[in-house]
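Notes from the 1:1 (GR / supervisor)

We went over the backlog. Supervisor wanted to see one worked example end to end before approving the batch request, so GR pasted a single chain during the call. The sequence is below; no edits were made to it. Supervisor asked that the structure be written out right there so they could see what the output format looks like.
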Amino acid sequence: MTETESKWDEKLKRFFKDYYWNEILQLANEYPDQRSLSVDFTDIEKFDRELSKEFLDHPEELIKAAEAALKEIDLPVEKSMEEAHVRIIKIPNRIPIRELRSKHLSHFVAIEGMIRKATEVRPRITKAAFQCLRCDYITEVEQNSFKFEEPFAGCQNETCGKKGPFKVIIENSTFIDAQKLQIQESPENLKGGSQPQSLEVDSEDDLTGDVTPGDRVIINGILKSRQRTLKEGKSTFYDLVLEANSIERLDKDYDELEITAEDEEEILELSRDPEIYVKIVSSVAPSIYGYEDIKEALALQLFSGVVKNLPDGSRIRGDIHVMLVGDPGIAKSQLLRYVVKLSPRGVFTSGRSASASGLTAAAVKDDLNDGRWTIEGGALVMADMGIAAVDEMDKMKTEDKSALHEAMEQQTISIAKAGIIATLKSRCALLGAANPKYGRFDRYESLAEQISMPPALLSRFDLIFVLLDTPDHTLDTKIANHILQSHYAGELFEQREKLPGSHITEDFVEAEMEVIEPTIQPEIMRKYVAYARKNVYPVMEGNARDHLMKFYTNIRKTGEGKDTPVPVTARQLEALVRLSEASARVRLSNTVTLEDAERTTRIVMNCLKNVGVDPDTGAFDADIIASGTSMSQRNKIKTLKDIIRKICERHPEKEGAPLEEVYAEAENVHRIDRAHAEELIKKIESQGDVFRPKRENIKVVK
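Structure output shown during the call:
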């Protein structure tokens, strides 16, 4: 034991006995499965200010002393904790990666950020046993983490003393689990125009394999340096490496959010409130006025339906996908950002800047891992068990949109790149937003035509909302009042915070903030959602099932005739089930009642009215979403093709049918007005079904 260790030994033993006796007993009970004792830095400060300062300035020696003291404590149970570690958490010395300097070397620092890369966990040799091949004597050599050391002094056997050859005996050597991580600055903490900086982290033993790329963490550790090596020799520059002592998770999955007994009591109290739906809906983006239907759908998306794993091995997703389409400037992006904030694992990305590999996964050469190819998860993988919000979906490239098909329905991402064949999980709900092609939404045109998205992708969304910006004096007055009130409250808050001599009181700010204050605070809302997803698995009552069946079959019945369109498909029925389950979870009820089913059918009906109605006939038509062409449009296209063929037969001497004649016959005989006929011919021409042998003539492709 060094002088420093012995100096602090008694103090540390006293500290452990006074503050962590119960935890040490629990650790002894669970050892060796559990090998770490977490120590809160604030407890060390309370116990002895000088000791806490020593921990920050000379962490390596003090952690060794603390681990030695822990091993020497007399326990009531017969157990030796030789491999036990002391992990210090809640270090006050939190430093952004870009502000790390040479003065921080060998000090205890806390680095906050997002895990960008994590290599696989592999054994690292700490003590190598070398067998002399001449005399079989075993010489042990301690290994540092940089370079493998061989016994330069030769064989330790006095009668031999030869310089080799040696062979490493694996069974007699000591190994420890090791993993390299790369932590990157959190995107939200960046200043404009700066790229996120990253730092390499070495983690060992029970810290390994605990984090995955995308996790937000605080890593407490000792900042070390490693000399760069160049072709010419060693460089004068050193690279920074953090030797991890403890890892604290910031954003946790729904399963990992810590819910205390008081939290649980508050959650159960909330669930008994008959106004719980109103409260939860009003807690989603309270700074945005109105949109009750959409906020209700977003709340249900947070709670999600139940995932079913069937006996035949197939899986039915429980996540609800929602799409918002509409005019610019009506707070679509605001809604997306708010939902991402409420979700324990939310990822926000914008369509224009997202590529297929950025959304799904990319194959990259890994500089941490000997230059091997590795798979790096994109936004949908990072949002596993959470919500992925994709704004400006209409601006994405066509080939990038096709990457979403599998991620939405099967909730996996299959990769076959650079010799790696893998399937990644993307069990997330997708929340998309898109603007119409020509700026504003035209309710007389089908949805697929207005947002350039493949119909196969649109049909995978459980709910599609159309947000229209229509002037209405009463509503506009309320919205304007709400916006101005929000800004006023924000101005008061900022002035009170930033101007020291401000006369504004805290009570006044709070009173003005009430309008935009969520009924349920985001922190408890996240815990409420997490509690519901973890503990509530509703089963549907008979009358709720009958209601959904009746609703679905009644709408389908309208499409039974020969010339009537298919109103809805089985996908909409699955959406109804998922939404009903989510509605029961809001109440923390394990039963889906008729009330839940009715709420669901109301939301779905509102969506269908806006999206699935044929503008020509006013009938429900699932093909508008599923194929982009309504049945009435298909019939008109068929009629136009027949007209072109007939006119071609009438004028065999001409190349094709004169367009004017086609338009005239379509209008006079079949009641298809000229503007509509022109539009349909343009559509079938772009699909390659007709062509123009001459500028004014048209012919059907055989």
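Supervisor's comment: The CA atoms of residues 532 and 589 lie 9 Å apart.
Batch request approved.
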